[in-house]
Amino acid sequence: MAASISGAFSRDLADLLTGISGSAYGRSATCSTYNLWSYDVYPIVLGGSSAQDAEPVAIASAPATGGRVFALGHEGLVQNAGTAGDKVDRLVMNAWRWLAQGRLVLRVAVPNSGYDGAMQRLKSAMPDVSVTTAVMDMDTFAAGGSSNVDVYLIDSYYYGYTAAHAAAIKNWLTQLSMKGLFVTGHAWAWAQSHPNANIYSDVSINKVLWPLGFSLSVRYKYGFLDAPALVPDKWPYYNALYTVTALTEQLQGGAALPSDALVPAWAAIRALFDTLPARADISSFMELAPVYTALAPLRGAAISGLPDLANLAWTKLDPPPAATMRYLTNTLQLLSNVAGPYARDPYASMWAINSPFGFPVVLSKDEGAATVAATEPAGGGRVVAFGHEAMLTGCCSAGDNYDKLSVNAFRWAANGTKTIRIATIANWMAAPIANIRVALLALKDGPTDVTTTAMTLDQFASGGSANVDVLWMDMYSEYSAVHVSAILAWIKAKPNRGIIASGQSWYWAYDHAQDSVFAARSAHKVLWPLGLAQTTQGTGATQPAPSSTAPLSWLWYNAGYSLPRIRDALKNPSAPQPGPEVYATANAGLAILTAVLPARGTPGTADIVATMDAARSTNGAVAGPKTPLEVMSTPPSAFLDVAMDAWAVRIRDLTNLKPSRSAAAYPGLPTAGAAPVNSLAVTFSANNVVTPPNSQMPSVNQATWRSTGLYAPPGKLITVKVTTPAILGKGFRVQIGAHTDDLTNKPQWKRVPVVVSSWPLVNATLTIGSPMGGLIFVTVPRDAQLGQATVTITGAVRAPRYEYGKTTPAQWRATVRSYPAPWAELDSGKLTIMVPSSLIRNMSDPDPLLKHWNAVMDAMAVLGNIPTQRYRAERFLLDTDISVGWMHAGYPIMAPDLPVVHNEMLNLAYLQNSGAWGPYHEIGHQHQWADEQFSGTGEASNNVFVVYAMNVTGVVPSRIENDVTPEKRKPIRDKYFADGANWQKDWGVFVALDTYMLLAEGFGWQFYKDLSAVYTSLTFRIGDDSARVQFYIQSGCKVSKRNLVPFFAKWGFPVMQPTRDVCGAFPAWAENPMPRLVP
């Protein structure tokens, strides 16, 4: 054993200590020490004040095959090498020569410019070698830059080393000849500020070093022992692997350690234990498994000369709890050979987990929500659920992570069965399951036989289940009570049966906005008893697969695991408390659970709801503009309190209704002491006939909100009596709240993420309420035509509401603007502006402002060829945060509740002088006709409405904030054409606006009015993007009565021959500006 180290050791020590042997180094630094765990690694310099406390601070490795490694525990000694001319400088220069291995041409790369001076001195110190140096980061090195490097220097201060980086360095060292790695930097300062951290997993350079046989330790030494004059035969015992092996052999009857080896042996074992994380820390469990195994024979042993051996922290060797080992085993199986990014990410739905044992398998990038989840239900069996069938249906030609995961999932679900019988229930599963079968049979130590059978759910329930080990089900099929009973009985009958579930629910939600996905999708009758539920939320981006073991924090995503622990920690401060490392994952799981969990009293939910009630804090954080709740760093019990407020709003929970503690922060409270109204009758239009009837404008299918001028105080019950029976059961609803953006997936909650509740009007009397409160509306479904309707509302407070042409300024000033609700409406008849009441309390006369907004709305209607007498007003709402963007279109249009937007919406002088590009832009979106849109127009054609509205309202083009004038548009145009006029890639936004404006300048605004008339008169839909482009060009030629093909072709539009034929019938556009503008 000693020869296995000493052969290389004696050779290389002499090289590295040339000119130093037997000498004092003269100076040193506070260096990190190293833990050595490979026969190829040995000490070169010992740090400490004496031989009794020495540990390695410089080490080397030179395997029989492959490259060399030299490591020194402080970067300053390397960066300043060559400045002192002493033995330390000599050591560093010797190391460079030793790593160069006799090369006459040496290419060196360093991670940053901090080593520039050292590189210049290196060139001077090696005049016989042609040295070139470069700065190269780790990503570049791993991506192929390594091919141009002979010696690479890395340090411990880059915290982004990954498993991919580690593999790149190891492959470079072992597969190419004469390569060298110089390692420097320390970790002792980091260790002092992170006393409970795992240095193997948290100091990322150790991901690179440990596969090479050593690591930085948490220990440090100041001072260097003198360099030895001869090769010290006991230095190999500073290698922990060498020492542990020798001691184990001694316990088995072998030779005892020499007495002079006891000091280095103890130093190696003590340093290893000081740095070694507990075996229960699965973040390093796999990498360190050989260490725990090797140390086990020494536990409890009495070895002469090592009296303190028994006092080491031997409990670090204790295995993880059974649940952790189960999780580790299962995730290792499911993620076998799955590492790094998922190359393709279908837009997948997210899964909530509530199971005695369950865990996420794939997490979304931003929300940390499970897009693939797995459970082992209490009754038996296994389930893997995929948030989109495309994760499976592509299997297995790509050989990517989803292909590997798909095969692993079927294997895991079968739980060791060597003969797997798979049943599929949908025709589209036939092709992928055939490929998965082939892949399963190709697995090493995989199943010996795999059969697949297509069967209906009726066949499965009628006895077919007896011949099935794994059932592939989907979210789209209808599962009857018979099917559900059969599936649940089948999976619980044997432990080696499993279900693969796949599909998404976000698309279903488009047409079921008011329905509970939990209750409405029958697949949940199967999946919820097995611990899974799918939300309507979706994502198209996932986190990379773990590089080694899945984090232990993933267990906390499962509400069945986290909630009892959160509850116990809340009720008993002496109980184990969840640490910050699990907050993000636990909160992500709770956010998704509360997004999908149905109303109280739903069968199968009583236990989880009771646990949630007990686990929520009642004195923790609130979510508001000034106290945003950080989703990833808020303690779970406090997070749950806010999430349950959102859940109560979602499910319209009136059980023990009380105000949310966050309601005061946003949307706010009525004026203190405000008295509720008693039986106020509200009459509204029950008509919602869309005009024009063929409208393709956004949001036309949404119900129209009819304002009541009332506000529901948070936590108060409100009574609604319908006195017009004709509207009952016809799709009419009553709604509390206006802020419809769901902020659940945002990393920061500036308000409770869901604050709008809606009840169907099916009975003549209805009780409603919300912990958040909000404006009260009656919503009228599309195409309703029932004249006038009346409801009587009791328990609400009045809200400021100004109706242009109905409310008088005198009424407004006298009473209306002082109504106690915290939110107000300014209704022009064509646009309803919804703002905090504080913004309108001092407004004396809203008429001039609303008249301006009507001019804007009429201008856009005229340009879009729709009636100026709109069938409903658009709505514009301020919010403390919105779901996406700075502002976004919709019904209502959403914008941030900030002074800059207050100015744009309410300051008439500002609007008359400069307009308001942002709000006009979003209103313009609401006028975009669907068939008139194609690639590049989405954020551009609406700006035509903006410019026209500003023109009509008298805004001088030079005062418009964006690039509208010919002079401002020129640089944008010039760049577009200088870059090659790539229409598919670059034509959009302000490039496209230039195109639009040139047509307006050439033909006048009538061109767009006539063009809109073409689209609004269509009796058919235009199918795809390509057809829409051709129709647009042809229509432009027809309304202008000119051949516009040369104009559009110059911009790079694809022009098909039929379009050339249609436009060729018209005369050329003699005034075409493109030959002049772009010669």
Provide a descriptive summary of the structure in words.
The protein is α/β, with parallel strands linked by helices. The chain has six domains: 232 residues, no CATH class; 86 residues, no CATH class; 212 residues, no CATH class; 104 residues, no CATH class; 220 residues, Peptidase M60, enhancin-like domain 1 (Jelly Rolls, Sandwich), CATH 2.60.120.1250; 138 residues, Neutral Protease, domain 2 (Orthogonal Bundle), CATH 1.10.390. The protein has 39 helices and 34 strands. The strands form eight sheets. A seven-stranded mixed sheet has the order 2-3-4-8-7-5-6, with helices on both faces. The protein has a seven-stranded mixed sheet with strand order 11-12-13-17-16-14-15. Helix 15 crosses helix 16 and helix 23 runs parallel beside helix 25. The longest helix has 18 residues. It starts with a helix and ends with a helix. Pfam families: M60-like_N, Peptidase_M60. This is Peptidase M60 domain-containing protein.
Record the SSE blueprint.
Elements (H helix, E strand, L loop, with lengths): L1 H15 L13 E7 L4 E7 L7 E7 L6 E5 L3 H4 L7 H14 L4 E6 L5 H10 L4 E6 L2 H5 L8 E5 L7 H13 L4 E5 L3 H6 L5 H4 L2 H5 L4 E9 L17 H12 L10 H14 L9 H11 L26 H13 L13 E6 L4 E6 L6 E6 L6 E5 L3 H4 L7 H14 L4 E6 L5 H12 L7 E6 L2 H5 L8 E5 L6 H13 L4 E5 L3 H5 L6 H4 L2 H5 L4 E8 L19 H13 L8 H17 L9 H10 L13 E2 L5 H16 L28 E8 L16 E9 L5 E5 L10 E4 L11 E2 L7 E4 L4 E4 L5 E7 L4 E10 L2 E2 L2 E3 L5 H6 L8 E5 L3 E6 L10 H18 L9 E6 L13 E4 L2 H8 L1 H7 L2 H9 L15 H12 L13 H13 L4 H4 L2 H15 L2 H11 L8 H16 L4 H6 L6 H8 L9 H4 L2
Parallel strand pairs: 4-8, 5-6, 5-7, 7-8, 13-17, 14-15, 14-16, 16-17, 30-31, 32-33, 33-34
Antiparallel strand pairs: 1-9, 2-3, 3-4, 10-18, 11-12, 12-13, 19-24, 20-28, 21-27, 21-29, 22-26, 22-28, 23-25, 23-27, 31-32
Helix pairs in contact: 15-16, 22-24, 23-25, 27-31, 30-31, 35-36, 36-38
Organism: Edaphochlamys debaryana
Protein name: Peptidase M60 domain-containing protein
InterPro entries: M60-like_N, Pep_M60_3, Peptidase_M60_dom, TCAF
